[in-house]
Fold this sequence. Notes:
The model has no long low-confidence stretch (mean pLDDT about 90). The protein is globular. By secondary structure, it is mostly beta strands. It has strands at about 1-5, 10-20, 35-40, 50-55, 55-70, 70-80. Strands 1-2-3-6-5-4 form a six-stranded antiparallel β-barrel.
Amino acid sequence: TTVCIIKRNETQVCAYVLNHYYRLGDDGTYSDGPIIQTDRDLTVGGDSGSPWLYGGVAYGIHSGDNTYAGVVRNVYTPAASLPRMGISVVTQ
């Protein structure tokens, strides 16, 4: 599946979804999720909170990077998971 991010500099770049996972917290419990991981790193500092799109529709919110198999990759939270985390998205 190809997903695209609109970065803070207003450019749009795309990657493939590699996998998904749940983060293990310091208290031994797993985070809300799933966290989606892409096949590469396309972002820079300050891109957190940027929208990830699937087919031109907002699909998730950029939440940072993760190193997996020795490669830095982007991760984002799917929009469907945000209400469970107490997060509301406002669009205009």
